Amino acid sequence: MPHTARATATAGPAPRLITIGETMIMLTPEHAEPLATATKLSLHPGGAESNVASHAARLGVPSAWVSVLGEDVLGHRIRTSIELHGVDVRWVMSDSHAPTGVYFKDPGHGVLYYRRDSAASRMGPSTVASVPLEQAEIVHLSGITPALSSSCADLVEAVFERVAGSGASLSFDVNYRPSLWPGGAAAPTLLALANRADIVFVGLDEAQSLWDCVTPEEVRAILPDTGRLIVKDGDVGATEFNDGKHVFEPAIPTDVIEAVGAGDAFAAGYLSAALRGDATAVRLRAGHERARLVLLSTSDFVADPSPAPSSLT
């Protein structure tokens, strides 16, 4: 898989959070119109792991994002945009033999993906060979990556093996995407990965689709080995299970415009608060607050209305 590293700006502080995964170019109709009638589209980067890194960077956490982009104008645009959010992109590579993926948001109807054989689908263990995963405090992955290709599944396994016992925490967002998984492969694969992680985020709706769980307690029962388990239940709230205890924090009432990307924002808010050493309820509340920014927009990522706070050290 011929990846070509590109020089980036001088690196900032060592990242406390490292995220790994695909980012594509997202095209969204203006004014939340359906694609069938829209005449104008806005263009932005969109990807679960870069969203988490971008939100966390805005919250003052030194964050890095690792991926592979096409050696094309869309890849260049993504790299520049993510870096402008304050994210360290020194380990983002370019592939001249595969394109950057693209997807369209169709408000009210879903999402259309054009990512087959994308540059990121060619990621593998070599993608993280030079990345100091063990030196981070949290390494974050999602269940999207192992579904992209067999080499991406190998990448995820390599990351889990390297982080285990290193002192870093492995954060895993289940992020179930049915269209990416053949047959019944998703349920056992994602369950096994989640049970090996230190921090797990999963929507109750995802858990029901994957494992027939209808309550947060049932999710905990099938994920007994996870350290911190955060079960999100939409506009109801989120529950964290840890050390035999659980804490529920209600969601913030919101007039939702678009939900895509809100889970990434929640994860970033939660992880940033965890790195501050905040209590469980505060971590969950920070997740809800960050998610609300995205729920009020058609974009996957929404920056703060004010400048990013100073870095957490």
TrEMBL record:
Residues 16-299 form the Carbohydrate kinase PfkB domain. It comes from the Bacteria. PANTHER family: 2-DEHYDRO-3-DEOXYGLUCONOKINASE_2-DEHYDRO-3-DEOXYGALACTONOKINASE, SUGAR KINASE. This is Sugar kinase. The keyword Zinc does not apply. InterPro entries: Carb_kinase_PfkB-like, PfkB_dom, Ribokinase-like. SUPFAM superfamilies: Ribokinase-like. Belongs to the carbohydrate kinase PfkB family. Keywords: Kinase, Transferase. GO terms for molecular function: kinase activity.
